[in-house]
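Quick start: read one record
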Amino acid sequence: MSIRNTLPAVIEDAPDLAIETARKVLGGAWAVDATRRDGSDRLYVRLRNAQDETVMAMIWPSQRKGGEAGADADPARMVVEVTQALASAGLPVPQLLGQRDDLRVLLLEDLGHTHLSDLFGDGVPVDRYAEALELLHRFQRTTFATNCPILTRSYDSGLWHWEFDHFREWGVEHRSGEPLPSRIAGHLDQVFRDLAERLASAPAVPVHRDYHCRNLMIDPLGRLRWIDYQDALTGHPFYDVASLLWDAYVEIDNDVRMMLFEEWLSAAAPDLKTAFADAEAEVALVAMHRMLKAAGRFVLFVQQKSLGEFAAHIPGLLTRVEALAATYRDRLPVFDQIVEPLRPYVPEWRT
């Protein structure tokens, strides 16, 4: 089957666009080496030339949609502007090599094939995780220009609530094929609104927003690099830490997880160390939110975008949420306010 026949109809012209843009921007002849999709509307095309040099082309449909929760910012422009901001701060993002005039195609440095998730053959790569966490310290302490897009967007209570409710809509109702009873839906909505207000009130720092093992790469020189950061904004200081340590794609032993978190917290800024009365419970709360959101997204990817490979990760996410509820119910009663009413409707939580 040809590459073109495997592409979504809205970007079936992607190979031609990628080759044309590379030829115009970089010169020479280029050919498609591989293509890859993720949960977004964009497509990645690896191009190779006669000298065996490669670049990655990031390609959007002709009609680009904004990000989650109704965001109306042009996602391609966000990649350009956030890449430039992070690169200027010395953070490990790929080099932006050029773009098509309408930004349908961006040409980026090819970081290779190895993701952090590929290093799990002999257990958790603790040194690499410590490195990834140290990069978050650098990121959170960076002073960006006031007009930087990272600083113009925030994890406000509306966005927190939208992400919680995304789990209700997709992770529960679309997954089961049935709406929740109005009494339970109303109860959850109030719980989610209260949690959203609480989480939005935390000190705000720069947040990658999708910091996990598949968005951390090891480049050909062995350096840890970032991808998929265009939705970066300001928000909860534990968001990226929770995303990394309670990852949707890999399982990390809890003793290792908490060791890494405690080491990261011990090296945090003094005001962050004292911002939460119970930092361990706070990161567990953020992790719960992150896993619920991911479960909802993955159901959407399977049902709406026909990306069936995400289905395998949903049960593990929801099982980990229940385990968190059991561990922290005395310190965080709100866990039971979510899990208990939903037990009949979430297969992983049925007793």
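The beta strands are 30-37, 43-49, 54-59, 96-99, 105-109, 114-115, 205-207, 216-218, 224-226, 233-235.
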